[in-house]
Amino acid sequence: MLQRKEAHGDDETVWRYARSAFAELDELETAMRALEEAIANASQRGETLDKLLRDYDTKTHAFEKRDGFSADAKTRRVLHGLRFTSEQYETPFASLSGGQKTRLQLARQLLIEPDLLMLDEPTNYLDLETVAWLEDYLRSYRESLLVISHDRYFLDRVTTVTYEMDHGKTVRYPGNYSVYAALKEEREAQQVEAFERQQAEIERIEDFIAKNIVRASTTKRAQSRRTWLARLERVEQPTARKLPFVTFLPETTSGVDVLELRRFCAKVGTPERALFAPFSIMLRRGERVALLGKNGIGKTSLLRAVAGVGKSEGVVRFGTHVEFGYYTQEQEQLDPALTVIETLWRVYPTRSETVIRTKLGHVLFHGDDVYKRVGDLSGGERSRLALAILSLSPANLLLLDEPTNHLDIESKEALEAALLDFPGTILFVSHDRYFLATLATRILSLTENRMLDYEGNYESFLAAQTQQSDETPTVKETARQALSPEAPRTKDERARRQLEKAQDRKRLARLTTLEQQIEQLEKEIKVDEARLVELSEQGDWVAINEHNEQLQEKNERLANVYREWEARSEEI
């Protein structure tokens, strides 16, 4: 099971921690090496040598069955998939961030390959590319998987059976999340229909009993019906679920031009350092703009700078009548000492208790729930409280940083519905692909060197990225001064851009070559491992040593190709 806290030595490194998944294999290999030496030193065949050979054969089969010869290659593959570069292999575990530690723990669990792999919200702390890699990995996982997740895309791609826990009951649904959602809706409709049909029948029978119980000619029939009614197994009345409800109602309409960033770059640290190359962009009224980019690129810092609470360079200009509301993923504006109702009153002191309680009720804080201390709330409750604060804002521009974090699926759907109805402008960061696909009308994809501005929804953006077409007219490079009113259009600038495109194509071609080399080397290593097992069965120790050296050499070549692949990937 993916655990949140484990004990580690101070000198534990990324590589050693991940590689410890193969501790039993390492012990087995050590025993094999000892047996090889003992066999080599045995002077003649006899009972002792036969026993050594049998032991060696048993251990070799066990080692080969668990792909022991490819342990290092597997470790590199999983670490790379979870975004650990070879330069980070010697990084001490203690110096990793919380997100990195969680990813490393996940890597180790994947490498252990238990009979039952249990994962609790495994997509937390993962960027979009890493989640896609994890999905592909789990889809090919040979053992059983039990996962808790609120990521609807992830559930659709990975799961084949869904269990729902609701009101103390667990119900099994065959299929992934989308199938479950459809079957659940159908099941609930059938429950309502069955309950209403039975209630109508009960009412009819009770009416018959009331009319006929006192009449001598019909009293026996009425008594019989009464007995039948007493024995009737009642259909349970479907429980009306309390669903969250959110609205965002701006008080004014902004101008057409809502937010301009000109030669803009977010900065962090002391001394300050730029997180990405400056770019220029204009957001217009009614757009729902998703900001994408790998973890650590500066998406949160960008939103903080736009909101005026982070460092930046360049121009941030709001349009006419623009009022913004800012949702932070950490909810640092919430005071843990205050109660839920005090929190809203501190932000909106002139609002009546009726308005405050109604708004809190919309996000499922009912009755005495409003007197809970913020410090005692769960992550989901804190997120719903932050949404309640934002929903009372008069903002016509919403800046949202991971608004679906900690929300259950029903709360996510309520938020999506509210944002789809919102008449203003939205700039948001999210790793929730379902949320992205539902909301985004425009994509800004941020890297260290450039900003890609895509006019379209998330799914069409992915399709364009897959095609890797430099000629797609809706994708506009906005690196440095692109989209700036002063953006140069000189021959030199056009030549520079053509050169950049040519270099990009060259890098992509090299990446493709490296990926082909990785695939070929991994195939050769697998063949060599199988051959090594055959040689061990034959007892050809000279050939085993030669073959083992060749295998180690190929593993080293594979590691070098992986390192170059990582370096080239960072350049794209």
Automatic annotation (TrEMBL):
Pfam families hit by this protein: ABC_tran, ABC_tran_Xtn
Bias (Basic and acidic residues) ranges: 488-501
UniProt keywords, alphabetically: ATP-binding, Coiled coil, Nucleotide-binding
MF (Gene Ontology): ATP binding; ATP hydrolysis activity
SMART domains the UniProt entry points to: AAA
InterPro entries, alphabetized: AAA+_ATPase, ABC_tran_Xtn, ABC_transporter-like_ATP-bd, ABC_transporter-like_CS, ABCF_ATPase, P-loop_NTPase
ABC transporter domain mapped to chain residues: 256-473
Disordered as annotated region, ranges: 465-501
Coiled coil location: 18-52, 504-568
Name this polypeptide is given: ABC transporter domain-containing protein
